[in-house]
Amino acid sequence: MVVVPSYRLSPLVKHPNHCEDIACALKFTAKNIEKYGGDANMVLLMGHSAGGHIISLITLYPQFLTKVGLEPSFIKGVVSVSGVYDISAIAKESKVVLRMIVNPAFGVKDDLDYSDASPIEHITPNSPPFLILNAQNDWGLEHQAKHFHEKLKNAGVECEWKHYEGSNTNHLSIIGLGKSLGQPYREMMRDSIKFFQTIVARTSNDFIQDEETVDSIVQDIPINQEQEDDAESESLEVGLMEDGDMAM
Question: Considering all CA atoms of the chain, what is the largest pairwise distance in Å, rounded to the nearest integer?
Fold first, then answer.
């Protein structure tokens, strides 16, 4: 069963409101999912870009869950796609990013220390399994993912990092937008489903991992086959970067 929550956007709100909104959605899920045939004891999170940041921070920084009455162990696994893991780092890398993304979403800090909002600063050995996924050209976020994966691994956390290579793999095509032609979107979904299957199989004796079933599910995923020229694709990426509401 899939639950698709949303959250208020910046610049109308700032951190930690985004995380608080998703924590409330998780509380609602915990209370109501069984009414629809779901299992409140097997909650797995998946998010892209800002969503990857939010679910990673909620998972690693337990105050968001405990504030709504949930235990940190409530989350059994995380798939973060093209996520942001070190807000302090991106604030220091580019004045444009600082002004247009970090400040509207996380506020202005003279020392540029956003450790409280950075998932990489809250890793513990008790963190749940992570699958970290990135496109080849991921706005530089693949470098953050590499460091995040290394820190998780050094802490003894079960984790895997996959970096999809190819000329058309970017921050948008990894989730099926733009000139993806089904790749790496289908690869990403296949890896995500396998990761979720592995986690669920550890606690369910009735759960059977079936490679053919996974491949069948992935092949049935609708892909936008409409072709866009390079200029249109580039324009879309720039538009997303410059739009404060899309940043977080």
Answer: 54
